[in-house]
Write a structure and sequence with these properties.
Strand content: 25-35%
Order of helices and strands: EHEHEEEHEHEEEHH
Shape: globular
Number of helices: 6
Largest sheet: 9 strands, antiparallel
Structural class: alpha+beta
Distance between the termini: 13 Å
Number of domains: 1
Helix content: 10-25%
Radius of gyration: 20 Å
Length: 276
């Protein structure tokens, strides 16, 4: 599957996030996060705190029908637990850790080149292995992973990938219909979501498309630019086996790349220099 995936020399991806969710570890607290950062501060010298990410599960079958009738979960009251964000000096890479999740992020900074999957996934797995060892060294139970997640965020700036909203259907023909059928009006903006169940209940693909104003990572104080933002999130439960995490991430990556290629146009592929 790896060799058959499409690839681009200049893809529009601006951020990736690979995540492993695990059952909360009894006794694991903020002090452990500080110790974990101290072991990595040379590579990630910029620590910060953030609100913990609420656990997410892709549910299928009868259990999904039952949960669909329940109200959404919210966090009530104060929660002293935090999510540690360890950022590299150039701010292009980040490792996030909380009691229940480990995330590895890459962000495009200063027109940096996307490091490709063969580099990003091993980095996540390396920090995951280090975290597992660290938890055991702290005399706590080894983390039990229960969910994999892969996120790709793509930005299509106005003036580069499109000039007016009328161009959006040509950029994303796989998910957008013909805007010229609108009666007495022209398309100005949009926000849409699609949720796709994957084969054999192996996971779910979430596609989020929105028209927004955004500032550049390179110039956070600069003027906002008009972009079309496409986020693809693949998430699913883990199979059994020692390589379940790696296989889940590989599957999620393949699903995202194949669907991204399928919903975008061949004209755009030429601009992004498709290689295969």
């Amino acid at each position: 599957m790896k060799n058959s995936l499409p690839s681009f020399l200049n893809p529009p991806v601006v951020e990736t996030a690979l995540s492993i969710q695990f059952e909360p570890i009894k006794g694991f607290g903020n002090a452990h996060l500080g110790i974990f950062w101290s072991r990595h501060q040379e590579v990630f010298p910029k620590p910060s705190d953030a609100e913990p990410i609420i656990a997410q599960y892709e549910i299928f079958g009868k259990e999904r029908n039952r949960l669909s009738t329940m109200p959404p979960r919210v966090r009530l009251g104060s929660n002293p637990a935090v999510r540690l964000q360890m950022t590299s000096a150039d701010q292009s890479r980040m490792v996030q850790v909380q009691n229940g999740r480990l995330v590895y992020n890459w962000r495009r900074i200063n027109d940096g080149v996307y490091p490709c999957w063969s580099s990003v996934q091993p980095d996540l797995l390396s920090y995951w292995k280090e975290f597992q060892t660290f938890v055991v060294e702290c005399n706590l139970d080894s983390p039990k992973p229960n969910q994999w997640e892969v996120v790709y965020v793509n930005h299509f700036p106005k003036g580069r990938d499109w000039d007016s909203p009328a161009d959006w259907t040509n950029l994303l023909p796989g998910v957008l219909g013909c805007s010229d059928r609108l009666i007495r009006g022209n398309l100005e903006s949009l926000s849409a979501q699609w949720h796709v169940g994957l084969e054999n209940d192996r996971g779910r693909l979430h596609i989020d498309l929105s028209h927004v104003l955004a500032v550049s990572n390179n110039d956070p104080d600069g003027e906002p630019m008009e972009i079309l933002s496409l986020q693809l999130t693949a998430r699913g439960p883990l199979d059994k086996g020692d390589d379940a995490v790696e296989k889940g991430l590989e599957f999620g990556h393949a699903v995202i790349v194949q669907n991204f290629t399928g919903i975008t146009s061949e004209t755009a592929h030429k601009q992004w220099k498709r290689q295969s």
